[in-house]
Design brief:
Blueprint: E1 16-21, E2 24-30, H1 38-61, E3 75-76, E4 79-84, E5 87-92, E6 98-99, H2 130-139, H3 162-168, H4 170-175, E7 178-183, E8 190-196, E9 209-211, E10 214-221, H5 244-254, H6 264-275, E11 278-284, E12 288-289, H7 299-305, H8 345-362, E13 365-368, H9 374-377, E14 381-384, H10 386-389, E15 426-431, E16 440-443, H11 449-452, H12 484-494, H13 501-512
Antiparallel strand pairs: 1-2, 3-6, 4-5, 5-11, 7-10, 8-15, 9-10, 11-12, 13-14, 15-16
């Protein structure tokens, strides 16, 4: 449990909800993001309501089987360590172990056997890796993860045979993607001219679009981690949820196909548990313990860092409420490994991680063509760094609302370099009003624009908290980067950074150690 003691100018604003326990104050959740806008709040509420209503309708038309609930451990210990592809990931709960039997996060509150734990498990950094989705399908194709409502490419998919199920849940097992169905709204500045959808879900009047500005758009996204939430500046990839309490309700009504909304007590149990989870890599196969020799990797130090976080703490656009200047030096975890004596083996691996951290903090990047940065600042080129978009100290996400389009969702001639967007639908959009009227876009995900209705937001999504990356491949919101090497290579090509092979390897070593 952390006591939050802030100067008067940093007093917790009304949009942060906290809970007093035994004389301490624990930050539970962001309730109203600092960038909230009343008009966009209304659009987001309509989008979320439409998403839930769509899932409930699909439940009636294409019912999922009643099943036993997701198996869960009896306890999540205060420090849990699990193996992942590059070493070990750890979960730390400052307030102590959690008994799962009495916590709504682990309870079957819907009709299809799912719990929050179904898509958010510790060995995956409290997200879902494609590797474990594949393993779960191989072990049991009827696992609660595999449900028509959003685990399949479309709720109307044929799942009558094992091969049919394998096809229906292919995006989930190959890329760890969940289907998100969001409503078009008549007030949007754009309409849909064409959809190239290999699954037909968007083209069906039953499951998808009913017109160029009506019906449901289905996109496919990675489940965001349900840990390290004290660093969030916005909730969900497109920022559609107003707070974690409402998100828990909508997830239960939608993903779990519940008959009724959660009670206040159940919401509090879920959000309190999530708010007390800190996850990070703690052991590297080559570098060994990431807390050794003065390093501060792992989740324990991270849990301390969150007490220093506030919205705008290091915003490159200048919204830091303290007036402090932006610093690109985001991470200090491995400063102590910068000049280790000796060489070879563990020392060489630790030195590589330290070099990767130095590159992340200092390599210059000429940022061009990023909607949300270049257009906002009215500058065709911005002299930036990795931390320009990943500015939160020790966490690496953005400390304010920053939906950005770096090209991940682009399709057609603008498809992202070196990334795999195969199997994703492609939407051709035409802006009918607003500043971008007359412009067309081709994207695999309409992004924030499905919430705001603005053409300027097409393809924009938020960046994730970077801690615990090694456990939750694939990467980006659409799972288009299979490995962290693919992530680094994308940025290298996208912005013409000119990294050497050694620098790329060092950056990957560092990212794996987060």
């Amino acid at each position: 449990m952390f006591e939050i003691s802030l100067p008067a100018r940093f007093a917790l604003p009304s949009w942060i909800r906290s809970t007093a326990i035994a004389g301490t104050v624990m930050l539970i959740a962001l309730v109203r993001p600092s960038w909230a806008d009343d008009n966009q709040d209304a659009s987001a509420a309509a989008a979320v309501a439409g998403e839930v209503a769509h899932k409930q309708q699909m439940r009636r038309l294409f019912p999922d089987p009643t099943a036993s609930p997701q198996a869960t451990p009896s306890v999540i210990p205060q420090m849990q360590i699990d193996k992942d592809p590059s070493g070990m990931i750890a979960t730390f709960q400052p307030s102590g172990a959690t008994q799962t039997a009495g916590n709504a996060f682990f309870q079957n509150l819907g009709s299809n056997g799912r719990t929050c734990f179904t898509c958010h498990e510790p060995q995956d950094g409290w997200s879902l890796s494609a590797q474990h989705a594949q393993a779960r399908f191989a072990a049991d194709p009827n696992d609660p993860l595999f449900r028509l409502v959003d685990g399949a490419t479309c709720p109307s998919d044929n799942v009558s045979t094992l091969d049919a199920k394998r096809a229906a849940y292919g995006l989930l097992t190959k890329k760890g993607l969940i289907r998100i169905g969001l409503p078009m709204q008549s007030t949007m500045e754009f309409q849909i001219l064409q959809v190239d959808d290999p699954y037909g879900c968007n083209r069906s009047a039953v499951t998808g679009l009913t017109g160029s500005k009506s019906g449901i758009v289905s996109v496919y996204r990675r489940p965001p981690p349900s840990a390290n939430l004290g660093f969030l500046s916005t909730i969900m990839w497109d920022g559609r949820e107003p707070d974690l309490f409402q998100q828990s309700v909508d997830a239960t009504l939608g993903h779990a196909e519940a008959n009724a909304a959660l009670s206040g007590v159940q919401q509090q149990q879920i959000v309190k548990f999530e708010g007390g989870l800190f996850t990070a890599q703690i052991h590297d196969e080559a570098a060994a313990e990431l807390t050794a020799a003065g390093a501060t990797g792992g989740p324990t130090a991270l849990a301390t860092s969150v007490t220093k976080f506030f919205i705008g703490i290091n915003d490159p656009l200048g919204s830091n409420p303290t007036g402090a200047a932006f610093s690109p030096v985001i991470f200090h975890l491995y400063d102590a490994w910068g000049n280790l004596p000796g060489g070879g083996g563990t020392v060489a691996a630790r030195s590589a991680i330290a070099r990767g951290q130095q590159l992340f903090n200092s390599v210059p990047i000429n940022i061009t063509g990023v909607d949300g940065l270049n257009d906002v600042l009215n500058r065709s080129t911005i002299s930036g760094f990795c931390g320009t978009c990943h500015d939160t100290p020790d966490a690496g996400n953005h400390s304010v609302k920053a939906p950005l389009n770096i090209g991940i969702a682009n399709a057609g001639t603008g498809s992202p370099l070196g990334l795999d967007i195969s199997g994703l639908p492609v939407f051709t959009l035409w802006c009918t009003s607003g500043p971008l009227a007359g412009k067309t876009f081709q994207v695999t995900d309409i992004g924030r624009a499905m919430i705001s209705g603005k053409c300027a937001d097409i393809g924009k999504v938020k960046g994730p908290v970077l801690r615990g990356l090694a456990a939750r491949a694939p990467y980006f919101h659409n799972g288009s980067a299979v490995t962290l090497s693919d992530v680094v290579e994308f940025y290298n090509q996208r912005f013409g950074i000119g990294l050497t092979a050694q620098q790329k390897a060092d950056l990957v070593a560092f990212l794996n150690a987060l």
